[in-house]
Structures are given as structure tokens and as C-alpha cells.
Amino acid sequence: MRAEPLVSLRRVLRDHRRAFWIWGASLTAITVFYMSFWPTMGEAMLEAIEGMPQGLMAAMGYDKIGTAGGYLEAVVYALIGPILLLVYGMSLAVRLTAGQEEDGTLELDLTVPMTRARLFWERLAAVWLLLAGLVTLVTIGVLVSDPLFDLGVDVPNVLASGVGLLLLVGAFATLAFALGAATGRRGLALGVAAGVAVVTYVFRGVANAAGLEVYAALSPFSWFLQGDPLANGLDLAGVAKIAAISVLAAPLGWWRFVRRDLMT
User: Fold this and answer.
1) pLDDT given at position 1
2) Quick check: 74 and 64 in contact, CB under 8 A?
3) Which tens digits make up the pLDDT trace of 27-40?
4) Quick one: which of 104, 125, 98 has its CA closest to 7?
5) Which residues contact 61 (CB under 8 A, 6 or more apart)?
6) Angle, helix 17-35 to helix 116-149, in steps of 10 degrees
7) 154 in the Ramachandran plot: left (φ > 0), alpha (ψ -120 to 50) or beta?
């Protein structure tokens, strides 16, 4: 007897559809809300922050905020988007692995005729699909805001930036998922993944403020944003490095998960 096709993936999507739409509506609304400030506050905001130290402005991405593209990048792609999507993605990832193992429900899912490997990959695919849906809604929010608030953004570059944002948050969610599957410890998996995200985010700020390329080289956030994707499209080398995180973390998590005693 074999399990239905994609039974675990479909179950995750079904179980999390309500939370997905709440998050999606919120992210879209937040995006449009912040973009609505641009026509009246763009220049005013630039004047307001002119007294800030130049290094601090660069670290926060505010040195380009005087243009619509710079404002959009600083607010949506460098701050609100990554932070909120990382909270959602990493929390979901560890809940589907270590979280359900700790509360005893993971073993119930494995009572169906399904291998651990299939469970692992279907659930990871579900995490990526949910994140892709949320990034799509953020992108729609940007595209809707463009004609409403005269942002003047390039649509292909907005779409490319959405792809980069998905790869970025997906990489950290995959890391959290792999750690949860490998260790069975929710707090450890979330703590390590979140810690790496915070440290590498700080690295980007330090690199921008002090011009230290060594920190930029260690930060996936820099790999995504340093080429100004809204103006120039994605930096393929940076995108490849971001994708490598998922490509390396996922198989390692799978390898450990299929060999580990889930009853201990």
C-alpha cells in the first residue's frame, strides 16, 4: 500500500492556509502602506536623516532613500520584507520538523506508508511554496503601488528582486528546517538559524558603514542587495551563493533525519 501522491505537502498547505492568507494580506497591506508615504515624504525623509552620521545612514540603507527605488529597497527588500518573511519561514520550518517531533505528532504522520525521505522533501517543498506565495503577494503590493504613488520602478527588476528575496528567505528557512530535522530540538534549530540570520544581517550593515568587503562577502543579505537589484537586476554570482545555502543544507538535514532515532 502506498500513500497518496504529495500527501504530506498537501496536508501542510491545507493546515497552514489560514495563517498564510493572514500573513499574505498583512504583508501586502504593509507594503502598500509604506509605499504610500513616498510621494509626500520622500524628500522630507531625506532631509530628516541628513543629520545622521554617514556611516549609520549607509548601514541602514538610508543613503539612497532620496529616490523611489532606494526608498523601496531600503524599506521593503532590506528591512520589512526579509525580517517578516524570515520570522514566518523559520518558525514554520522548525514547527514542521523538530516542533512536531517534540509534541509527538511527527510519529503519527510516519504511520502512513511513507518514507522519512519523502516526508522530509515534501514538507520542505511546502515551506518553499508558502514562502513563494508570500513573496508573490509582496511583489504584487509593489506593482500595485507603482502607478498609485509614481514610484517609476522597472517591472522586470521588481520581479527579479522578488526572486532574490525568495531565495534569501528560503535559504534561512531551509537551514532552520534542516537543523530541526537533524537535531529534533526546536529551540536549538530556531536559535542557530535565527542567530546566523541576525549576524549576517549585521555584517551587511558593517560592510556598508565601514566599507569592509570581508563582511559583505560573508552576508547573504549583501549578496542579494549589493548589486542594486531594483536598478540593475539580480547579481547572478550573489544569487548563486544564496542558492548554495539551500543546496548544501537540505541534503545534510535529510541525511541525518533518515538515520536518526525519532523516539529518543
Assistant:
1) 45
2) yes
3) 999 999 989 887 77
4) 125
5) 70, 73, 74, 78, 79, 208, 225
6) 30
7) beta
- Residue 114 vs residue 188, higher pLDDT: 188
Instruction: Tell me how crowded residue 44 is: count the other CB atoms within 10 A of its CB.
Output: 10
Question: Distance between CA 32 and CA 181 in Å, rounded?
Answer: 36
* Residue positions counted in the chain: 264
Query: What CA–CA distance (Å, rounded) separates 69 from 149?
Result: 12
Q: What is the 3-state secondary structure (H, E, C) of 65-114?
A: CCCHHHHHHHHHHHHHHHHHHHHHHHHHHHHHHHHHHHCCCHHHHCCCCC
Cα–Cα dist 135/30, whole Å:
13
Joined together, the cell numbers standing for residue 226 give 549589493
To 5 degrees, how large is the angle CA 76–CA 78–CA 80? 45
| Top-confidence range, 78-82, 135-139, 146-150 | 135-139
CB 142 within 8 A of CB 158: yes
**Full-prediction pTM beyond 0.85?**
yes
pLDDT digits (tens, 9 = 90+) for 103-128: 877 777 777 778 889 999 999 999 99
Query: What is the rounded distance in angstroms from the CA atom of residue 262 to the CA atom of residue 250?
Result: 18
**Counting Cβ atoms within 10 Å, is residue 77 exposed (0-12), middle (13-18) or buried (19+)?**
buried
Which has the closest alpha carbon to 200: 179, 181, 180, 221?
221
Buried b (16+ CB within 10 A) or exposed e, 208-244: bbeeeeebbebbbbbbbbbbebbeebbbeebbebbee
Distance between CA atoms of residues 182 and 187, nearest Å: 13
Q: How many CB atoms neighbour CB 1 within 10 A? A: 4
